[in-house]
Write a structure and sequence with these properties.
single chain
Amino acid sequence: MRKFRPGKASTLYSFNLAKLSSSENQHISMLVNSYNKECGCNSGSFFMTFILFITVTGYFITGGKFSSIGFHELGWLAGIIILAAITGKIFGLLRARWKLIKLSNNLYEKLLSINQ
C-alpha cells in the first residue's frame, strides 16, 4: 500500500477514465487517496482504549484492590495495551488494503459492464 519514503510527500492519485464522468473520476480519486493515507491510528486507538477498559474493569471485578496495584500489574497492563495498539494498527492497515482491493474490483466490473 505505502512504502516508507523519508522526505517525500505521499503520492496523490487522480483518475481520468474516459468511460466515467468527471464527478465519478473525482469520487474514485478521493476514495483511493483516503484509503492510501490510512495508517491504522483510529483502529489502534480504539483497540487500545477498549482493552484498557476491559482489563481494568476485569481486574476490579475479580477482586483486585487499588491498594494492591504494583509494578508487576502496571507492567502487564502496559504490555497488554501495547499489544492491543499494534493489533489495532495492523487491523486498520489490512482493512484499508482490503477496501482498495474491493474498490478496484468494483471499478473493473463497472468498466466491463460499460464496454458491453
